[in-house]
Amino acid sequence: MNLLEQLFSHICGQQHCWVLGGVRLPLCQRCIGLYAGAFLALIIVRIFRPRPRAFLYWAHGFFLLAMIPFGFHLVAHGGLTRTFTGALFAFGLVYYLTLNPLTAWRAWSDDSPARTAGYLLAAALAIGLVLLMASWDNRVSAFVLVSLGTVGFLGLCCFALLNLAILPSSVREIRRKSFEYFQ
């Protein structure tokens, strides 16, 4: 844990950390929600591949914006709320980070309301699982949360790099479409 604590000290203030089973986690409560939620969000997006629609744009935008009152401490909140808002933010972030790659590879699923509902239900269950793990005071939940958080952080880094890699082709496609539109 000491190595992870040192590594994560560069991205996390490490205040308000969970202590589960006598183990102090190397990430704060919000970052545990963010990175563990990001890992689960990446899996759920991969399984459901929800096609972009106005409802999903707005919902995930709300997930991102919900962090403002809590992240800036405008609203009093405790540990589970920090973890919840981190996980909620993770789902918004992962959704927007996967838009370009899934569009470039035309990897969207069929556009069905049942699939979207399944995606949202799986997201709610995943966030509930992160909260449940955070509330269990044992070493197993500490290990699981730290593992999910570490892999989730690496997944977010990979998707950020992937977006940068395909950015030139996305810009070319936007220019081509806008040129066709105005002709």
By helix and strand content, what is the structural category?
A: mainly alpha
Uncertain segments:
none
Counting DSSP H or I runs of 4 or more residues, the number of helices is 7
Biggest sheet, in brief? 2 strands, antiparallel
Helix percent reads over 70%
Which band does the percent of strand residues land in?
Answer: 5-15%
Written as H for each helix and E for each strand, in order along the chain, the element string is HEEHHHHHH
Overall pLDDT level? 92
Radius of gyration: 18 Å
Kindly state the number of beta strands: 2
What does this structure look like?
It is built from 7 helices and 2 strands; from the N terminus they run H-E-E-H-H-H-H-H-H. The chain has one domain. With 183 residues, the protein is mainly alpha-helical. The chain has a two-stranded antiparallel sheet with strand order 1-2. Helix 2 (29-48) runs antiparallel to helix 6 and helix 5 crosses helix 7 (139-181). The longest helix has 43 residues, at 139-181.
Give me a quick take on this structure.
The chain has 7 helices and 2 strands; from the N terminus they run αββαααααα. By secondary structure, the protein is mainly alpha-helical. The chain has a two-stranded antiparallel ribbon.
